[in-house]
Amino acid sequence: MLTALFFYLFAIVLIGAAVMVVSAKNPVHAVLYLILAFFNAAGLFVLLGAEFLAMILVVVYVGAVMVLFLFVVMMLDVNFAELRAGVLKILPIGLVVGLLLLFELLFVVGAWVTAPTLVNDAPAPPPAEVSNTKALGQLLYTDYVYLFEAAGLILLVAMIGAIVLTLHHRRDVKRQNIADQVARSPETAVEVVQVETGRGLQ
Asked: What is the pTM of this model?
């Protein structure tokens, strides 16, 4: 009874926080709601017996990624009014992508309902012999190793995109030019000055 109560509590708060993430007008508030959603998802993982996933969700996503997002959103000078003005232009594409994702989710749920023996009757090791961390590692690095590497590539693309968004070229700031540095010769890089004894450079 107590487990079911906590499950519904975490689930309701998680759904509410997720709705507020996409509906909040202030991007900083959206990031804070996302942190709340991550905490409640970690609570659901604890109820499922996946303590390792819950701790990773709190330490990595809340402790590092969300704090980084918060600072990026606060420091990044994004013109949100201009972004909202262009929503109507890309609305048909967004609707097509949304319908495609909805179709995929319905397909997955239908496969789960119509063929429960393929999912629910899969052999599982006894919980006393295999820990959470070991079972997760065996799945990630054996059955889902290619998907794991694809997720790494997606994170790499996201990191490059964040760098491109925050990299502003200003004319009044002197930047490093590696090509010019490599092309320098000793004649242009070093100047030998003969200083007379008892006199300094003027």
From this structure: 0.53
